[in-house]
Amino acid sequence: MNPNSEKTPVTVTLPAGTHWLCTCGQSKNYPHCDGAHTGSTFTPKKVDLDAPQTIELTR
Ligand code: FES
Asked: What is the rounded CA–CA span in Å between residue 47 and residue 19?
């Protein structure tokens, strides 16, 4: 069970730049990866933005 499932879908505004988004649901800084996936089969999703963007994340 995903402990952060109650947090999705989530809408976030990210600044321009590179972001690593959590796919495992274990991050205490969700939706950003904080390394809590270490030891699991999950890896963060890299998102490169040229400009600030509001996105909705769902799993
Ligand atoms: S903490 Fe979830 S993918 Fe890194």
From this structure: 5
- Tokens 């963007």 appear where? 53
Q: Which residues contact 48 (CB under 8 A, 6 or more apart)?
A: 17, 18, 19
Per-residue pLDDT of the chain (59 residues; tens, 9 = 90+): 455 556 568 889 999 999 999 989 899 998 899 999 999 999 999 999 999 999 888 76
Q: Is the CB of 37 under 6 A from ligand 1?
A: yes
Indicate the pTM of the whole model: 0.79
Atom of ligand 1 lying closest to residue 25 CA:
2
